[in-house]
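Kindly go through the following sequence and its backbone structure tokens. Advise at your convenience whether the structure tokens fit the sequence:

___
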Amino acid sequence: MSDNDFYALMPLLLLAGASVLVMLLIVARLSHRIIQIVSLALFIVSFSSLVYMRDLLPYPIDPLFVIDDFGVFMIGLIIFSGLVVNVLSYIYFEEKEEGPKEYYVLLFLCTLGACVLAVSGHFVSLFLGLEILTVGLYALIAYLRKRKHSIEAGIKYLILAAFSSAFLLFGMALIYLQTGTMGFSEMAGALADVATIPPLFLMGLGLMLVGAGFKLAVVPFHMWTADVYQGAPVPVTAFIATASKGGVVAVLLRFFVAIDGFRFAGLVFLLICIAIASMIVGNLLALRQKNLKRILAYSSIAHLGYLLVAFIPGSPMVPQAVSFYLLAYFVTTLAAFGVVAVLSDRESDAEELVRYKALFWKHPVLACILSSALLSLAGIPLTAGFTGKFYILATSLRSGFWLLGIVLVASSVIGLYYYLRVITVMFSGINDHVPEPEEKHPLFFGISMGVLSVLTVLVIWLGVFPDGVISFVQQFRLR
């Protein structure tokens, strides 16, 4: 391995090494507090290592990886999500019935798997990253095994993830049979002179879409989402909603751009149907929910539909729109789940809406943080969500996909109801049973509140002053 290879892979190597180091700390019987602080420091070091990669880009590591601007941006987003989840995990797990130390090993491995996906340019690295990610998530989802819905959520995710991996592998095999290669760029060469999709390639692509659809929880592959979101620990749910899905979106976009899949009308029509169904069904299913984690679960289905609206046109704006929207969605979702994590107690998560009644009058800062996150998810102006949806809408309409734009706007209006309902609950009534998180672990509560405040500032900043980030992502070109 050359020096440049080492620098290009440094974040991945650091994440892998961090998981080993944390295992050694567990063997040494160090306390949860020390392990959490060391884990936080390792996440910061991994994120800082991205600086050493900027002079190398683009840098292919044949045949498995393509390290480019988009890939590094996605790695940064994923590691940042892992860092935030790490901060929120201490106050959440400290008083739980399960020992939380091994949790950090799994968190590093899942982050590593998502990062591998973000820079994959080959079926082998794609499947390797996906399995590192999902196998760790099996354990993380069912980590609090004495909880009511925990084992159920873990088993559901295990079974459906296994099925989706089988679909994905069979699809890869068919594509390999047709093209004779597993590298994305080599597939593009094999399909360069093909006007219509060969039958085997079409079948393989369809099976891969089924596998990826389960990972992304888009309609009609969304059945597991609400139960897993509800049953998993809150920080794990935040990780699934952000880093896990971000890695899959990144590799899917890289694959489609490499093979120029957007020129096949049948494939584009299928993606349009999935996007429209996800936007409508996700928002409609969230309307009658009284559990905040389930609301955010169905909301995530709708947001993946919005993301497909940016994905479908196949224009040079696609990587830019996807990158900005993922940034806005990550920051907003982490802030929302962060409030849930801080308010959760030893016995149960703060997921029922009744627990948020009159939250503003007892914890105004937490209420304002959650309100800003929900307004951003709803796409209200002056928030990151509005700018992200506007960017997606511009990408879609500029390419002539008017139907997608109309459905995006209409479904966003539907989503306003359940987002505003949660905000209304927080600002109305009187409730003396709101939990008192600041009475437990004041130092780590303060750190968690500081991180949530930074996320809230980012939500507003990306909505008011998005020019700097938009100029940055406009440089992205997938290779």
In short: The mean pLDDT is 87. The beta strands are 59-61, 65-67.
